[in-house]
Amino acid sequence: MKKVGVLFDLDGVLIDSEGLYTEFWEDIEQIYPTGVENFALVIKGNALFKILDTYFPKNIHQNIIDKVHEFEHNIKYPIYDGVMDFLKSLKELGIPAAIVTSSDDVKMNALYVEYPFFRQYFDVVITGSDVSESKPHPQGYLMAAERIGCDPKDCYVFEDSLQGLDAGMAAGATVIGLTTSNSREKLINKAHALIDSFAGFSIDKMLAVTK
Length: 211
Hints:
Layout: E1 5-8, H1 18-31, H2 39-42, H3 48-55, H4 61-74, H5 83-93, E2 97-100, H6 105-114, E3 124-126, H7 139-147, E4 155-159, H8 162-171, E5 174-178, H9 184-187, E6 193-195, H10 203-207
Parallel strand pairs: 1-2, 1-4, 2-3, 4-5, 5-6
């Protein structure tokens, strides 16, 4: 039997933080206007270094980084309903799992402080610090698949952002989209299957999804 792996985005997939980040980047846009319409939505799924390099002059990068770290140090990260049950099922079945996130190590450490048990459910964690290419490039997912010892085509990717869904598809994985950040209509044809949440979603249901 082929070895299956499961690769998760973090924000909007495992933790309910997308709304908080939208508000944060809307505030940043007010302080340092980019002129980009719906800026906070346009950048969803992008690593911080890509956001900074693409939209802001270098002389204010550190100011924004400091604001990001202060924000992430103070917010709480609610775990979505059904997520822990799904992760526990993967662990019990010996199916390797990884996180592939644009978040940096500072944010991840804050998450582990809030939920000390969380890290044990993942064999690998790929952060924005580990990659040179941001989503929609598949680098993060390809790296995660290699590190858990799975062929990308035998992996299932869970994503909520358009950039992330494109990254999962480009990696050759079976992609399952969550309707937490975008409407179901907006995600049509962007994934092999769509779910509203992990509540009631089982490993069997995941394995039944085909490309």
